[in-house]
Every structure is written in C-alpha cells, then in structure tokens.
Write a structure and sequence with these properties.
The complex is a heterodimer of chains A (284) and B (280). Chain A contains twelve helices and no strands. Chain A has 284 residues and is an all-alpha fold. Chain A folds into two domains: 2-65, no CATH class; 72-241, MetI-like fold (Orthogonal Bundle), CATH 1.10.3720. The longest helix of chain A is centred in the N-terminal third of the chain and has 37 residues, at 2-38. Chain A is flat, with a radius of gyration of 25 Å. Chain B folds into two domains: 2-34, no CATH class; 51-279, MetI-like fold (Orthogonal Bundle). A two-stranded antiparallel ribbon of chain B has the order 1-2. The radius of gyration of chain B is 23 Å and the shape is globular. Classes of the chains: A mainly alpha (284), B mainly alpha (280). Chains A and B meet through helix 1, helix 3, helix 4, helix 5 and helix 6 of A and helix 1, helix 2, helix 4, helix 5 and helix 6 of B.
C-alpha cells in the first residue's frame, strides 16, 4: 500500500514537471519570437515568422543598429533611467517623512491629509490626464525634472498610505527615547525611524519603479515626442505606432532592447520584487 | 513628543503636499468642474451644466467601449484567476524547479503595456498572415488578442498571491483531511479553497481594476481598430480628448464617469477585504 503510494506520488510529480515545462515554453514563445525575428532581414520576417533565421534571412545586428539609430534608443534609456531613479528617490524620501508626520501628529488637518492621499489611490489617471498635462505645460514642468515632481505627486497616495501603515506598528517609545537624548525630530526620523522603515521602503521603491519605468501616457502627454527627452515607452510607440510603412526588423530589435533592462533588473532583485508586489497587492 | 514634532510641519509635509496638489488635487478639482463646461483649453471654459454627460451617453462609441470593457473584464478575470490558481497548485507541490518556473511565469508582469502590446501584435499578425488576414480586420481578433495578452501578463502575478495564500494553509489541516479519507479533489474544494478565500478576493479585485483601467495594451495592440470597435473605456476617453477638437468637455465628463466606476470597484474591494479580516 505504502509503496504504491510513493510510486504514484513519483509518477504524478513527473507528470506535473512535464506539464510545467511545456507551460514555461509556451510562456516564453512571445519573447523567443521577437528575439528570433530581430535577427532576420526586415523583408523576410513576414514570410515565415516562426522559422529560425537561415543563412539567407540572417541579418546580424542590422535591425538593432537601425532601431537604435531611428529612435536614439540610448538617449531614451538614459531619460527613462533618470526619471525613474530620481522620482523613486524623491518619493521614498518625501512620502516617508510625510507619512511619519501625519501618523505621529494627530489633528484634524493630518487626518484630512491622510484621507486625501488614500482617496487619490482610487482615482484613475484619465480623470486628471487633461488638466494635469495642461497645468504642467503652463508651469513649464515639461522636462525630466518636472516629471520627477509630477511622479512624486501622483505616486504620493499609495506611498504615504503604505508608509503610514508601517509607522503605526513602530513602538513610539524608541522615538521618545531618542528625543529625550536630545535628538531633533529630523535626527530622530533619519537616525531611528528610517532604518526601521527599510523593508517598506524597498517595497514602495519597487512598486513605483515598475510603474514609472513602464509608464507611457504621462511622459507622452507632458513631454511629448518633439523633444529630446523621450522615454523608452514613448520611443517604442513613436517608432511602431504610426501606421503605414513599418520597419518590422527595427521594431523587433527595439522590443528586445526594451525588455533587456527589465529582465536584468528582475533577475538581479527577484526576491524583493516578488515580495514587494505581494505586499503591495495585499495593502493597496 | 507630538509638540516638538508639530513645529516641523513645513519640513515633513510641505514638499510632498506641493507636488501632490500640483499633480493631483488641482487637476482633479479642475477636471470635476470642467466636466460641466464647454472648453478647448482650460482657460476658456463656459458652464453648460449636464450637457457633456448627455452628449457622452448619446455616443454609440462610448456605450460600445463600456460594453467591450465589461465583456473583456468578465472573460479575462475568470480565465486569469482559474489559470493562476491551477498553476499555484502545481507549484506548491514541492517538485524540482519550482523556483525557475515561478520566475518565468511572473516575468511578463514586469514588461510595460506598450511593449507587451506590440509583442503580441506581431505574434498574432504572424499567425493570422497564414489565413490572409490581420489583427485589425475583425473586432473578434482584437478582443481575444487582448484576452490572451492580459492572461500572459497577469497569470504570474495572481499566481504569486495564490501561492502565498496556499503556503499559509496549515499542513496539519490538509493531513487531517487526508487521514479522514478525503480525495485530492475534496481536499481542494473543502479545505484549500475556503482557506485561501482572502487571496481569491484580492486577486479578483486586482484583475477587475486592472482590466477596467487597461490603456497601454489596448493602444499598442489594436488602438481600437477596426473603427473603434475594440476601444476600451480609457482609450475612448483619450480619443475624445485628443482626437476630436471641441469635445474636451465630453471627454472630461466621460473621465468623471470612468472615475466613479473605478472608485466604486475599489471601495467595494476595501469593504469586502475588511469584512473578511473580521471573520478570521
């Protein structure tokens, strides 16, 4: 009886393993598809899209050179990185301070502020899209630093909400002890509270980085396509979104290039990313 | 301590509040007001009452977008959650390679909507070219293309949440069921699923709100073609604002209604998860 149980467990595990292998391959098909085609001559792609490149259709890195030249890809990568990094830094620094203040100082004002942040989380971007981009243009925020300010403002809701939830769980005695020892509130915050907030800060950073890096509409509406500050999603849409004569080769290469940074980032901090999105899903 | 800290209001909160007002509070209030106005730029607004709302509802495109969004959401939510839950069951059996499988399944979730949309557009067109048609020839292709794309993107995300839920089910509970002679199927229905109900409600609402707010994927995959039949609500609002001069007010009115729908979903979620927490 026991032996057959062990056997059947082994067999069902083997079946599960095979099924999962097949599913993983299916999941990778779209990625393999664009990689495969990015190495074919642009005129050959539509002939037999699922075939491996042959000696005749192989075009080396021509598509990559084309894609990079047409979109100025490295500049877009730079601006995407610039906007994402500085926005995330600003969000972490400013919203953690705000969350700390409104959680520790209880008044009608801070309660109102808290509810305003919570409220902003349920408002879809389309609601403020038009007025925000007009306001940003009037105030000359249509540049990368302006984007940092806008992302800080629009990302503040979720971030303040998540930090507040965590600050509540920190025993206030630690801070009081620091204050009695002569720390100013700023010293207390950066010396005592900030280190305790680190796990939440990582979660908030990852959630915001994913959103800002991939965001298309805000940079498109505020910065537009006629400047040198285009981000990766904007150049991808700019190159391939226009109907008519399309360079399929350059498009495939560009899609591959756009995915590489995400995959590298994911493989490097996989553990934090997965923990972060789970925490974000449960709280947000 | 409160007293000392209180004096630091400006340092701790003002920078965030300024950015928040600029990016959210002011545009939100302006948007709310402008939905009752006729305008082309923000400065030449003329109050017209509920005119924009009436115009919005008279548009077949808007109603079609609403219907398309609801149909898409229902099918995507059901399929994503069934596949994700099935995968999470397979991945909690402690077999070899679990981590690698999990890594691959989750990855599409990190790729941005625009890029995802174009990957699938070229894939689907590559298949359809054999039948001498394209993705934008028929609204049905666009619909199912979007469903497949969304499944590809969100299954891994939901799977991770289900795995976390399943790992929290006490093993002695499952063992007790097995000793009592429960089959694998019975254990699943009577023990595992009731125990992961909180995860299920989180996943249902996450997929629901993500499906409703979908924009980038929709824009990149079909951009609404053919003739706006595959445009979802967010894309329809965008097209009303930026595709038709003189319709900014109608666009803003649609945006307000869109906000009310999305907010209702979110508030229901909050209420649902709150009451679940009390039960536990």
């Amino acid at each position: 009886m026991k032996k057959s149980n062990v056997m059947s467990k082994k067999i069902s595990d083997a079946i599960t393993f095979v099924v999962l292998c097949i599913l993983v391959l299916l999941f990778l098909v779209p990625i393999l598809f664009i990689i495969l085609n990015s190495f074919k001559g642009k005129l050959y792609i539509s002939d037999n899209p699922f075939a491996f490149p042959t000696a005749e259709t192989f075009s080396g890195f021509t598509n990559y050179a084309n894609g990079i030249a047409k979109t100025n890809f490295f500049s877009a990568f730079g601006w995407s990185l610039f906007i994402t990094v500085f926005s995330v830094i600003a969000i972490i620094l400013l919203t953690s301070m705000t969350a700390y203040y409104i959680t520790r100082v209880k008044s009608k004002l801070t309660t109102t502020i808290y509810y305003m942040f919570a409220f902003s989380m349920i408002v879809p971007f389309q609601m403020v899209m038009f007025t925000m981009s007009k306001l940003a243009n009037t105030l000359h925020l249509n540049n990368p630093w302006g984007m940092v300010i806008l992302y800080t403002g629009f990302g503040a809701g979720l971030s303040v909400f998540m930090f507040s939830g965590f600050v509540k769980s920190i025993p206030i005695e630690i801070e009081e002890a620091a204050m009695i020892d002569g720390c100013t509130p700023l010293q207390t915050f950066f010396g005592v509270v900030m280190p305790i907030l680190k796990p939440t800060a990582i979660t908030v950073a990852i959630l915001n980085a994913m959103w800002i890096w991939n965001d298309y509409l805000l940079p498109y509406l505020v910065i537009g396509v006629s400047t040198n500050y285009k981000t990766i999603p904007v150049v991808v849409q700019y190159l391939v979104g226009s109907y008519g004569a399309k360079d399929m080769g350059a498009m495939m290469a560009l899609l591959v290039l756009a995915i590489i940074p995400i995959v590298v980032f994911y493989l490097a901090c996989q553990k934090y990313i997965i923990e972060g999105v789970v925490a974000g899903a449960v709280k947000g | 301590m409160q007293k000392t800290l209180k004096k630091y209001f400006a340092v701790f909160t003002v920078p965030t509040l300024l950015a928040f007002c600029l990016a959210f509070v002011v545009p939100f209030l302006m948007g709310l007001y402008l939905s009752f106005c006729n305008f082309t730029t923000v400065t030449n607004a003329k109050f017209v009452g509920f005119d924009n709302y009436i115009k919005a509802f008279a548009e077949p495109d808007f109603l079609n977008a609403m219907l398309f969004t609801v149909k898409f959401a229902v099918i995507a939510i059901v399929s994503i959650n069934i596949f994700a839950f099935a995968l999470s069951l397979l991945l909690t059996r402690k077999i070899k390679g679990t981590n690698l499988f999990r890594t691959v399944f989750f990855m599409p979730n990190l790729i941005g909507g625009i890029i995802l949309g174009y990957i699938w557009q070229s894939m689907i067109n590559a298949i359809l070219v054999k039948y001498e048609t394209t993705l934008v020839a028929n609204a049905t292709f666009g619909f199912w293309g979007l469903v497949v794309l969304m499944n590809w993107q969100m299954i891994g995300y939901m799977m991770i949440i289900y795995i976390a839920g399943l790992q929290n089910v006490p093993t002695d509970l499952i063992e007790a069921a097995e000793i009592d002679g429960a089959t694998g199927w019975q254990t699943l229905l009577k023990v595992k699923i009731p125990m992961v109900m909180p995860s299920i409600s989180i996943c249902l609402f996450l997929t629901l709100s993500n499906c409703f707010k979908l924009f980038d994927q929709n824009l990149a995959l079909t951009a609404g073609a053919p003739s706006k039949k595959t445009a979802m609500m967010a894309l329809d609002i965008y097209n009303t604002f930026y595709g038709r001069a003189g319709f900014e007010g109608v666009g803003q009115a649609k945006a307000v209604m869109f906000f009310i729908i999305v907010a209702t979903i979110a508030i229901t979620q909050l209420a649902a998860t709150r009451s679940k927490e009390v039960e536990q």
